[in-house]
Design a protein that fits this description.
Length: 435
């Protein structure tokens, strides 16, 4: 009996002790969740919780997965991508429809829809149900169909405004009635004109002697990454999809496609991290990112004249002098990279990529290469300068496990290598000599 009472007491004590430990862990998590360094630092506890929620969501029950697949198939069919009957089974027809959707939106057309692509598709479907009958979307729906409406939603997400509906043309007024003819007397004969002496030539004035073509000094406006990628995405859709490995014919266009893909991944990652930043508005986050761009501005000016290792060393010195943890600064750089693209601030995006490369994530050298090649946020560099950053990024991705960033899948890396190293290069024909 004594033993039984002793066991019961031990069990009750254990039950009391467990909630206390859980409460203490929860208090520690809440305390860590309030940490913000520099206004944009994301605490790692919230990031881990976000990942856990994402993993849980990616593995729903069988019935929930079937229902989600039905919603995806229904949305694909609505926007003109034939996924077949919405039965909840993602077969070959559904995967083909997903690939068509991905290609037209500028995503990687692999037939496997990721959470970002799924949420955009389903959100656009719900939006179309409520807005496709109002201006200007009803005109887009009538002239371009549901797929044109989806492209419009994508452009708006990228910061490209939708043209407002044009006013209906005003009908021209009816012509006034012709007046009735009035009888008149015969006209008097016209007087014979007298010959007029030719006028003496006028002397050339000083203004005529000094005439010249206008010469104005125009300010140079920054190029828009949003407009650039919108044009690339339209051409990609017209070509039937993104350039595949081993099929690089136009190296410049293939690099631009990869740039816009990297940009899309950067914005998606920034959005997911921003959701874990407590007690800050979008305007406050953007203000902090503008400060980042100002701090890294001196390093941006040396991109065209310094080697990548020199720029990285200079930026690393700035990072170390800040006194902030490298991992948290890197999280802030990822936030600001996406913010720069969403707000069409090329210099902010470029500064964020330089910070990330200096923080040890050399795969972001791809972004720096694209910016230097096209002149986004910096002056256009010679091919050797931009290629040096690209080669550094590709070597990092292919030689270091887990170093891939911005969706640098094997296919993406293969296209970047083909377009940078010599795939698809032009050459004179070489035929065997005739005997």
């Amino acid at each position: 009996m004594l033993k039984r009472n002793l066991c019961s007491s031990l069990i009750m004590a254990a039950m009391v002790a467990v909630p206390v430990q859980k409460a203490q862990a929860g208090d520690a998590g809440a305390a860590l969740g309030g940490l913000i360094l520099g206004g944009i630092i994301v605490n790692e506890l919230n990031k881990n919780k976000q990942r856990q929620r994402t993993v849980y969501r990616a593995a729903p029950s069988y019935s929930a997965a079937r229902e989600e697949n039905r919603q995806i198939q229904t949305a694909l069919n609505y926007f003109g991508y034939n996924a077949g009957s919405p039965d909840g089974v993602m077969g070959s027809r559904s995967r083909s429809a997903v690939s068509q959707y991905q290609a037209q939106m500028g995503f990687t057309p692999d037939g496997r829809i990721d959470p970002y692509e799924r949420d955009f598709l389903l959100g656009s479907y719900q939006r179309a149900l409520s807005s496709s009958h109002v201006a200007p979307y009803n005109q887009i729906m009538a002239s371009q169909g549901p797929s044109g409406l989806l492209r419009t939603y994508r452009n708006e997400q990228l910061g490209i405004s939708t043209t407002a509906a044009q006013a209906a043309p005003v009908p021209a007024p009816a012509p006034a009635p012709m007046p009735a003819p009035v009888a008149t007397s015969a006209p008097a004969p016209a007087p014979v004109p007298q010959p007029v002496a030719p006028a003496a030539p006028q002397p050339v004035t000083a203004r005529q002697e000094n005439a010249s073509l206008p010469a104005f000094t125009f300010g140079q406006s920054d190029r828009s990454v949003n407009e650039h990628c919108n044009q690339i995405n339209v051409l990609t859709a017209a070509n039937g999809g993104i350039t595949a490995p081993g099929r690089v014919k136009d190296k410049e266009f293939a690099l631009n496609e990869q740039f816009c893909l990297a940009r899309t991944h950067a914005m998606a990652e920034s959005t997911s991290i921003t959701a874990t930043i407590p007690n800050m508005t979008d305007a406050q986050i953007e203000q902090q990112c503008e400060g980042l761009a100002q701090v890294i501005a001196p390093q941006l000016t040396s991109l065209s004249t310094s080697r990548p290792d020199q720029v990285i060393a200079d930026t690393s010195a700035v990072i170390q002098s800040s006194g902030q943890p490298i991992q948290q600064l890197a999280s802030g750089g990822k936030v600001c990279l996406g913010v720069g693209y969403r707000t069409d601030n090329a210099q902010m995006a470029l500064a964020s990529a330089v910070l990330l490369a200096a923080a040890g994530q050399l795969g972001y050298g791809e972004v720096i290469s694209h910016h230097m090649r096209e002149g986004f946020g910096t002056a256009k560099a010679d091919p050797a300068g931009s290629n040096a950053w690209m080669q550094m990024a590709l070597e990092s991705v292919t030689s270091t496990a887990g170093a891939a960033v911005m969706g640098q899948s094997p296919d993406r890396v293969a296209v970047l290598q083909d377009a940078t190293v010599g795939g698809g290069s032009a050459a004179l024909p070489a035929f065997p000599a005739k005997n």
